[in-house]
Amino acid sequence: MPLCKSHERLAHAGLIENEEGSPVKLGHGVALAKGTAANVVINWAIKEEADKAHPKYQIDKKVGAFYVH
């Protein structure tokens, strides 16, 4: 999923919960009408701190080293 710079940095800081899934998902009984969906559930959330024990965190730290500050 393409992200803006701010959200990409949150992701690489390990601060997005459920990042492996879609940012939104459709709820039960959703009817699609004219290209829109009702009952959209936000699947991502911002964590207060990263799970430093998660293997992905180590990868994210290496990716972060390439950012131009």
Question: What's the short version?
Answer:
This protein has 69 residues and is α+β, with helices and mostly antiparallel strands. The chain contains two helices and six strands, in the order αββββββα.
The 3D shape can be described as: globular
The helix content is 25-40%
Percent of residues in beta strands:
15-25%
Major beta sheet summary: 2 strands, antiparallel
Run of helices and strands: HEEEEEEH
List the helices and strands and how they pair.
Elements: H1 5-12, E1 16-17, E2 24-26, E3 32-33, E4 36-37, E5 40-42, E6 45-46, H2 55-64
Antiparallel strand pairs: 1-6, 2-5, 3-4
What are its keywords?
two-stranded antiparallel sheet; 69 residues
Can you describe this structure?
This protein has helices spanning 5-12, 55-64, and strands at residues 16-17, 24-26, 32-33, 36-37, 40-42, 45-46. With 69 residues, the protein is of the alpha+beta class. The strands form three sheets. The chain has a two-stranded antiparallel sheet. A two-stranded antiparallel sheet has the order 2-5. A two-stranded antiparallel sheet has the order 3-4. A hairpin with a 2-residue loop joins strand 3 (32-33) and strand 4. It is globular, with a radius of gyration of 15 Å. The two termini are 23 Å apart. The model has no long low-confidence stretch (mean pLDDT 76).
